[in-house]
Amino acid sequence: MNLQPMILKKRGGGELTSGELNRLVAGVVDGSIPDYQLSAFLMAVYFQGMSVEETREFTRAMSESGSRHEWGHLARTTADKHSTGGVGDKVSLVLAPLAAACGLAVPMLSGRGLGFTGGTLDKLESIPGFRTSLPESEFREIMEQHHFCLIGQSEEIAPADKRLYSLRDVTGTVESLPLVVASILSKKLAAGPSSLVIDLKVGRGAFMQDMKSARELGLALRDTAASLGLPTRVLFTNMDSPLGQCVGNGPEMEESLDILAGRISNEVRELSLRLCAEMLLGSGLEEEESVALAMAEEALDSGRALECFLGLCEAQGGRLDPHDERWGLPEADYSREVLSDEEGFLLPFDARKVGELSVQLGAGRERAEDGVDPRAGIRFLRKPGDKVLPGDVLLRVEGSEKEKVDVCADSLSKCLSLGEDAPVSAPLVLSSL
């Protein structure tokens, strides 16, 4: 297929028709359009954008480029959540089993970390044996038995997005709003939920660093999804500081399990409960926020959410030891603590810088083909606002390579600062749509 006429049309600011977009997506999937023409098309969209109608039709065509799931036979309302990603964001690991414990069915497609933000699949794969790549038949079987599943994008689900995403990453077109909308929603539509909640991160450690651009993306996601029959709620949440106590795949998995087990209570628990309540409201399972929140709290505090996760873990081949303090997760070969050398209140630290250092440590990847070290991570033993004394341990860096651990610890120590007064804490949830 020759894409040049569409490239020239879009380059000149023209609007592509539904038929043209259908042919484009078909050519992406069957390989008849070469990468160099797709790259030129993506750059034309980056500079010229897409109209509301184009974005909707492009998203629809991409969602229909592979198999689409239907879950009516489950006799449960299906709902899903998408996060735009941030440093220390492990909410999906808590939220998916929590929502299932509340009576929802959750077919959650997740991704891998790239750059300074982590990925749910990498965190799950820190569990020995856990499989995130499943055939369609097993995906459906697990959904029928456990009512939720945590997997990566398969070859069958929105295959057009899989190819275009890899090209966006190397052509500098990742930030294009219509391309972001189509990429996110095409996978969600194909997975088959009846409602969606989007956790749109805002701040230094997020893709969107200011509320103006975040709101523009949130509105585009909500309105495009609604026009394609998927009711969507959007929460804007704070990502100026790392979320929770850990950054890194194994440590974040351990933290999530501890939250499910009731061992710790922090902002990850708070946000998971809030998002679960939004999923219950958006799906129509509950009508009042206070009732939905109480239902989520009961499912978490009773241990039912943990039971759901442990059951799914076994079904997807994972091996955990609930009797072990660290759940049987692999432990780091080296660690180093960073201590306070004075008294004061710990001030907020830059989430983006922490994320970048975690990548250098081995907990993230700079390129899609890079591997990750499941043992590498940063554990914050004090959070912003805590009063600390000389000699108090502020954080611990862990990993498989001593040199990387030392370099990361030295760099982090320069990022931390103390003040005479406790900093004013920013709200976790900034606003909603």
Q: Averaged pLDDT, please?
A: 94
**Count the strands?**
13
Strand order of the largest sheet: 1-4-5-13
Structural class: alpha/beta
Uncertain stretches: none
Helix content: 40-55%
Q: State the helix count.
A: 16
The global form is globular
Please compute the radius of gyration using only Cα atoms. 22 Å
Question: What can you tell me about this protein's structure?
Answer:
The chain has 433 residues and is of the alpha/beta class. It has 16 helices and 13 strands. A four-stranded mixed sheet has the order 1-4-5-13, with helices on both faces. Strands 6-9-11-7 form a four-stranded antiparallel sheet, with helices on both faces. Helix 1 (4-11) runs parallel beside helix 3 (35-48), helix 2 packs across helix 8 and helix 12 crosses helix 13. The mean pLDDT is 94.
Describe the secondary-structure layout.
Blueprint: H1 4-11, H2 18-30, H3 35-48, H4 52-63, E1 80-83, H5 91-101, E2 106-110, H6 120-124, H7 136-146, E3 148-152, H8 159-171, H9 177-191, E4 196-202, H10 211-227, E5 232-238, E6 246-247, H11 249-260, H12 267-283, H13 289-301, H14 304-315, E7 334-339, E8 344-346, H15 351-361, E9 377-380, E10 387-388, E11 393-399, H16 402-415, E12 418-419, E13 429-432
Helix pairs in contact: 1-3, 2-4, 2-8, 3-8, 4-9, 4-10, 5-11, 5-12, 5-14, 9-10, 12-13, 15-16
Which descriptors would you attach to this protein?
46% helix; four-stranded antiparallel β-sheet; 433 residues; alpha/beta
Please provide a brief summary of the model.
This protein is an alpha/beta fold and 433 residues long. 46% of the residues lie in helices and 13% in strands. The two termini are 41 Å apart.
